[in-house]
Amino acid sequence: MRPAHIALAALVAALWGVNFVVIEVGLDHFPPLLFSALRFLAAALPAVFLVGRPTVAWKWIVGVGLALGVAKFGLLFTGMDLGAPAGLSSLILQIQAVFTALFAFVALGERPGKAKAAGMAVALAGIGVAAVDEGGSGPLVGFVLCIAAAACWGVSNVLTRRASPPDALNFMVWVSVVPILPLLALSLLLEGPDRDLAALRGLDWAGVGVVLYVAWVVTVFGFGAWGWLLRRYPASSVAPFSLLVPVFGMSSAALFLGEGVSPLRWCAAALLVGGVALTSLSRGGGPAATPTATGSAAVRV
Length: 301
Description:
- It is a single chain.
- It is built from 15 helices and no strands.
- α1 (3-26) crosses α4, α2 runs antiparallel to α9 (180-191) and α2 (32-44) packs across α11 (205-232).
- By secondary structure, the protein is mainly α.
- The two termini are 25 Å apart.
């Protein structure tokens, strides 16, 4: 890869990692489901009028929109709102590579090789260590919801692989249209209209900036740049940069939010990142080589 393109890949990973800190700040302004709905609203408008017609069948757009937008982000934002730390959340979501490989085996018949299976086992060991650490220092409910979010991300990765969108930016913009109304309906039902109205009435420039960051910087720019890199270079050259996301996530959470990183969490990070590397990058071309599977999440996060 050219130096400028290496810098671009690292920049995208950094933006996706810092995004977890931004989400944490956003949850001080909005209820989690409303925040997620606003994120997709801002990502879809006005971009949906600029990217042209969808380039894949609507069934894939709706499927990924529900699995990624409603389920994954609804669970992630709720889990973080219930106390899952930003740095740990950025780390736990990387288990999506294991879920992607498992679901691809079930749905697509993509049998993992020995290296990929070993990577999955190592990554799951990392989740176990992280669970022990979180069980002793924080709420397990948020931790479990983050794992469920990673599983939903795995589902969306497999659906994206089946869709094989020729234009990643076009696909993600249209996918962003799908979750808006379901998330708003869930927010009204579960979070209540009074809480939603209070958040909207109290909207300030910080709240606007948070929404624009997670929508335009992370989603539109991040996935547009990631997809552009994947069209120019082999996935095996681009994918390793996604492993920087939890590094930036945990570092920025420690820097800006004062989150401590215990020895157990460092151990969990080493196991998870190492296991995800084996799972994603081993020979056999698993689903993690697609833009969505390797990105995030960033990220789509």
